[in-house]
Amino acid sequence: MNESRQEARRDVVSCQICLITLPYDFYGKKAPYCPGIIYYEDTYLLRDPYNPEPRVVAVAGACDLCNTITCMDCSVFYTKRFCGKCVLENYDGLPAQLVNSVKSKMQQLMDDQT
C-alpha cells in the first residue's frame, strides 16, 4: 500500500529531443533515499524499481549549454551534461569517440522519427 501511494506522487519529465516521458521522484544532486550517491549536476532521479535496496536511477538532466531537458540516451555527461544537438554543434574539445557515438544516436533517432 505504501508503494502505490509513492508511485501516485511521481512526476514525469519529457525529453525534448526524443519526446519520451519518464517518471521521476526526485530532482537534485542527492536523493534522500540514497544518501551515498551525489551527482555533479541537478538530475531527475527515480528510485530503482527493480532493487529492494535503496538505489537510484538517473533518468534525465538539463543540457549545460542550451538548458534542454534530455533523457540519458539523448545526452552525454563529459564534465557537464550536453544534449546531442549541442555535442554536434560544439564538438571542439570533445573526444572523437564520444562525438561519433552521439552522431550515431542522433542519426538513429532521426531515422526512427521518419
Topology pattern, helix = H, strand = E = HEEEEEEEEHH
Q: Main sheet, how many strands, which sense, barrel?
A: 4 strands, antiparallel
What is the spatial order of strands in the main beta sheet? 3-4-5-6
The average pLDDT score comes to 85
Number of extended strands: 8
Describe this structure as you would to a colleague:
The protein has 114 residues and is of the alpha+beta class. Helices cover 27% and strands 30% of the residues. The strands form three sheets. Strands 3-4-5-6 form a four-stranded antiparallel β-sheet, with no helix packed on it. Strands 1-2 form a two-stranded antiparallel sheet. A hairpin with a 1-residue loop joins strand 7 and strand 8. It is globular, with a radius of gyration of 15 Å. The N terminus is likely disordered.
List the helices and strands and how they pair.
Blueprint: H1 2-8, E1 11-14, E2 21-24, E3 26-28, E4 43-47, E5 56-62, E6 69-71, E7 75-78, E8 80-83, H2 84-89, H3 96-113
Antiparallel strand pairs: 1-2, 3-4, 4-5, 5-6, 7-8
